[in-house]
């Protein structure tokens, strides 16, 4: 099924009587697989598809209140094939149905036609009536697909690339609050919003984005829990200081670390370091497993007998008072993409602070992630499973058979972050292996677009799933762009594909999903996609640390100085031997892009920092003039 039909503005209002049904204790939830769809066809039943996450409060409300209601259970068991999907465990389906938020409640006919889309929790009485109405209309043959569609396999853009960049900026900038700062209504800690702003702020004429990024970063400080640390899921207030959404997701902790690290590199205010410590304190106390990986999320509600307290009231309490009431549930599942985001965040904090603890954290977690490779270049999405009895949605161990684009993209980005930190060639080789996995397993040859997964399961209508997810394409293009920049020159023959190949793969993938309609419906979640557009259009600044002996004290010192002191939003760092660049007898820097390169900057030059700053300025100005 190549398109998902998608927005329904109609609601059944027919009220009918329903016979008394036999008692059933629970709903028999099935996984998204061909056998489930076949069962729907054989029994001629509607499919009730519930897509969500463990951290989602509305999903928990449905699980604890609606799906335990006897009448709801009876209606579902008699008339529907019920399918549960975890959007984090199966990110391809998460993006396919993510337009509706969580939970996405989807009704599908046995032949695969989508006939109803609803977002958010429904209380038992309302949901019972909804189920009754859909079943009655289905029996009468009155169900039909909504008229508005969102095509997940669109025609590639053939505009000039700078027009695609401008379109991406235009679509994203609609969500920026120029009066109060921040993007969107819930103010989530999405680091890519800030990264694209820092990047754009280096362009002549767009300097205001640097100030916008810094002011928005300051507002995120208001969203940190003063008791346990960690950043809330979001705030609906313009000043980010109230009306919090109290769920805490580990990927948002990673996002906050990135945001505060980059802010500290721009503005050496110690408040950024304090915020970083508060985020890490929460992760260490509440989310780190005994094996060293990090769990997924913590709920904001207390679901326990005899406890009735709102999240706002609970989180206004001190540590002792909270613990006396009880702890919010955690999703202890460990996902590869989320842990990879933490590797990237730990790496950037090290670059900002020069504290070696952060480097050790990054490389240690990266080593753990590496144990979840399938040995052919790809990475599994699930690193550790939470017991089914503690989950809303059961996770199938068969998920390990799938390659997910999101998993590969962030695993690759983590390998490159580790390579920048350490110069370990093994990490660069693994990044190339991941890139080759994406190209050989997840790329549509005709359009150049990237598929959300290589799953063998079909859509409910029996058609092959060929979705090209925009958000995950942005992550993969970010990875391709960085891999191309790091491989350029001396590392260009490390893998099967060259830096030029990866730049081409990135452009084709970005074009494949770059329609105005696709960008519009994804809202401000296109931030990493927009960042990737700018990376490809503007180029990275490549800072090469060149040493005859990369293990020498002088080389290690220059490499550390480059990472910790010579910051630029467009910079990537690579440690290498002479060859592509000439031997100097001592450690030296070369600052380049694909068309211009600095003279060698010697490690012992007392004016090294100012010379590097001038070269950064020269390269960005030349690129701006050329564009």
List keywords for this structure.
627 residues, alpha+beta, four-stranded mixed β-sheet, globular
Task: Report on the architecture of this protein.
The protein is 46% helix and 11% strand. Helix 7 packs parallel to helix 20. It has 627 residues and is α+β, with helices and mostly antiparallel strands.
> The biggest beta sheet, please?
4 strands, mixed
Radius of gyration: 25 Å
Structural class by sheet pairing and helices: alpha+beta
Number of helices: 22
Relative strand content: 5-15%
Strand segment count: 17
| Mean pLDDT across residues | 90
Kindly state the percentage of residues in helix.
40-55%
The 3D shape can be described as: globular
Report low-confidence residues grouped into runs of 5 or more: 1-23
Describe the structure in brief.
The protein has 627 residues and is an alpha+beta fold.
Give a topology summary:
Blueprint: E1 3-7, H1 34-43, E2 46-52, H2 57-66, H3 70-79, E3 80-86, H4 91-96, E4 104-108, E5 114-119, H5 124-140, E6 148-151, H6 161-173, H7 191-200, H8 208-220, E7 234-235, E8 244-245, E9 248-249, H9 250-266, H10 270-287, E10 297-298, H11 311-315, H12 319-325, E11 330-331, E12 334-335, H13 336-353, H14 356-370, E13 382-384, H15 405-422, H16 425-441, H17 470-487, H18 499-512, H19 516-521, H20 527-538, E14 541-546, H21 553-565, E15 571-576, E16 588-592, E17 601-602, H22 608-626
Parallel strand pairs: 2-3, 14-15
Antiparallel strand pairs: 1-6, 2-4, 4-5, 7-8, 9-10, 10-11, 12-13, 14-16, 16-17
Helix pairs in contact: 3-5, 6-20, 7-8, 7-9, 7-20, 8-9, 9-10, 9-13, 13-14, 13-15, 13-21, 14-15, 15-16, 15-17, 16-17, 17-18, 17-20, 18-20
């Amino acid at each position: 099924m190549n398109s998902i039909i998608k927005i329904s503005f109609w609601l059944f209002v027919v009220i009918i009587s329903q016979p008394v049904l036999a008692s059933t204790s629970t709903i028999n939830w099935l996984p998204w697989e061909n056998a489930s769809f076949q069962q729907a066809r054989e029994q001629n039943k509607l499919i009730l598809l519930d897509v969500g996450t463990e951290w989602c409060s509305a999903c928990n409300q449905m699980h604890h209140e609606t799906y335990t209601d006897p009448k709801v259970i009876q209606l579902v068991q008699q008339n529907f094939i019920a399918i549960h999907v975890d959007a984090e465990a199966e990110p391809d389906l998460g993006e396919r149905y993510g337009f509706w938020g969580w939970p996405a409640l989807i009704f599908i006919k046995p032949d695969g036609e989508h006939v109803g889309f609803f977002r958010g929790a429904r209380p038992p009485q309302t949901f019972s009536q909804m189920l009754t109405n859909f079943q009655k209309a289905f029996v009468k043959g009155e169900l039909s697909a909504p008229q508005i569609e969102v095509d997940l396999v669109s025609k590639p853009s053939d505009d000039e690339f700078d027009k695609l960049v401008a379109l991406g900026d235009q679509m994203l900038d609609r969500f920026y609050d120029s009066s109060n700062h921040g993007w969107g209504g819930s103010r989530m800690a999405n680091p890519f919003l800030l990264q694209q702003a820092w990047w754009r702020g280096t362009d002549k004429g767009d300097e205001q984005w640097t100030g916008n990024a810094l002011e928005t970063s300051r507002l995120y400080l208001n969203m940190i829990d003063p008791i346990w640390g960690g950043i809330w899921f979001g705030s609906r207030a313009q000043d980010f200081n109230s009306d919090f959404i109290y769920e805490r997701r580990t990927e948002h902790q990673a996002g906050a670390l990135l945001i505060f690290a980059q802010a500290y590199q721009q503005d050496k205010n110690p408040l950024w370091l304090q915020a970083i410590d508060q985020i890490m304190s929460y992760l260490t106390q509440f989310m780190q497993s005994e094996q060293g990986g990090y769990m997924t999320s913590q709920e904001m509600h207390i679901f326990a007998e005899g406890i009735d307290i709102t999240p706002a009231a609970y989180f206004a309490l001190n540590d002792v008072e909270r613990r006396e009431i009880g702890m919010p549930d955690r999703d202890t599942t460990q996902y590869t993409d989320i842990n990879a985001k933490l590797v990237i965040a730990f790496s950037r904090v090290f670059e900002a602070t020069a504290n070696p603890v952060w480097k050790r954290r990054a490389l240690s977690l990266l080593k753990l992630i590496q144990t979840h490779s399938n040995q052919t270049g790809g990475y599994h999405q699930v690193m550790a499973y939470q017991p089914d009895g503690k989950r809303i949605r059961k996770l199938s161990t068969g998920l390990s058979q799938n390659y997910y684009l999101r998993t590969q993209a962030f695993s690759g980005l983590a390998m490159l972050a580790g390579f920048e930190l350490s110069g370990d060639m093994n990490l660069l080789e693994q990044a190339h292996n991941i890139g080759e996995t994406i190209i050989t397993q997840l790329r549509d040859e005709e359009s150049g677009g990237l598929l959300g997964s290589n799953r063998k399961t079909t859509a409910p209508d029996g058609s092959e799933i060929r979705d090209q997810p925009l958000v995950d394409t942005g992550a993969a293009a970010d990875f391709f762009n960085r891999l191309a920049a790091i491989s350029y020159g001396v590392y260009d023959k490390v893998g099967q594909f060259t830096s030029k190949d990866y730049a081409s793969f990135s452009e084709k993938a970005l074009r494949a999903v770059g329609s105005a309609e696709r960008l519009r419906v994804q809202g401000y979640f296109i931030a990493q996609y927009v960042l990737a557009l700018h990376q490809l259009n503007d180029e990275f600044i490549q800072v090469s640390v060149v040493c005859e002996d990369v293990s020498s004290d002088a080389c290690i010192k220059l490499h550390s100085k480059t990472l910790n002191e010579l910051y630029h939003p467009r910079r990537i760092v690579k440690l290498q031997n002479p060859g592509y660049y000439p031997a100097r007898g001592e450690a030296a820097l070369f600052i380049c892009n694909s068309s211009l390169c600095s003279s060698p900057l010697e490690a012992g030059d007392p004016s090294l920092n100012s010379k590097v700053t001038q070269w950064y300025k020269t390269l960005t100005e030349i690129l701006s003039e050329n564009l």
